[in-house]
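User: Here's a chain of 193 residues. Predict its fold as tokens.
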Amino acid sequence: MIMFLFCPIHFYASPSPFCFYNQSLILLALEYVSGGTLENIIQDQGRLNNKQVLFYASELVVGIQFLHENGIVHRDLKPENILLDEQGHVKIGDFGLVCTGMYGAKTRCDYYGTPGYTAPQVLLEEQYDAGADWWSLGVILYEMATNRLPFSPKGNLKQQVESIINREPEYPDSLSTKLRDLIKQVSKIRINI
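Assistant: Prediction complete.
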């Protein structure tokens, strides 16, 4: 017997319009998103201009808020998981590491994510909540604006965390005050640090 489900669709999250399952399979019919990824844009253009960064930031904020309002923490936000449609609008993809049921003050303490984009609490396997996604957004904004990560993902875990805690990222003069303040504000979400 095959069951059909309608999966919720949101403009900023890559939807699965149909899910099919039986006792041995789960199949998802996914939307085709033809605009590539944010990673492709950064690789092709290098630093994005302030207007582009703010455009993508605003769409990512709406998408992340939608996920969090539905108890979903993505835990692996990075440019290669941010898809773009043919008009250049954001679709958050790759939900393989999500954590569901994360409402209110609920926390987790397991490690998932990609070095360089992962919040320090997650790296240390300390309690974290949806703030881990906001940390990743701050890293993505910085990368869009500078074409580099704010903290090096190199070295062992201790070196990565020390870099995050003890080192302030360098902000190029080319960043507008508005964009610099936005990145700093998002990056302040450092629970337990």
